[in-house]
Amino acid sequence: MQIAINLPNDFVAFQSSAEIEKDMRLSYALWLFKNARVSLAKAAELAGLDIYDFITACKQNKVAVIDISKEELQEELTGLLLL
Fold first, then answer.
1. Does 80 or 39 have the greater pLDDT score?
2. Which of 6, 18, 43, 60 could form a disulfide with 29 if both were Cys (CB 3.0 to 4.6 A apart)?
3. How far apart are CA 13 and CA 6, in angstroms?
């Protein structure tokens, strides 16, 4: 599927259309992943990155890769200590 949007010239004058497409794909992939709409692997695929580079992009954009609460983590660690 192809989606076209109109952007003001002064917003895109300093980038090529390929760079804009890459940035928009990454932004959309990050948004989908952050909102639990797609898996990490699917988001990386949409962004055109391997999983490791997508995880790096998540870190740079402050998107959590592991969604676990402090309490859940403490329970997991306590369970490991009991082994």
1. 39
2. 43
3. 13
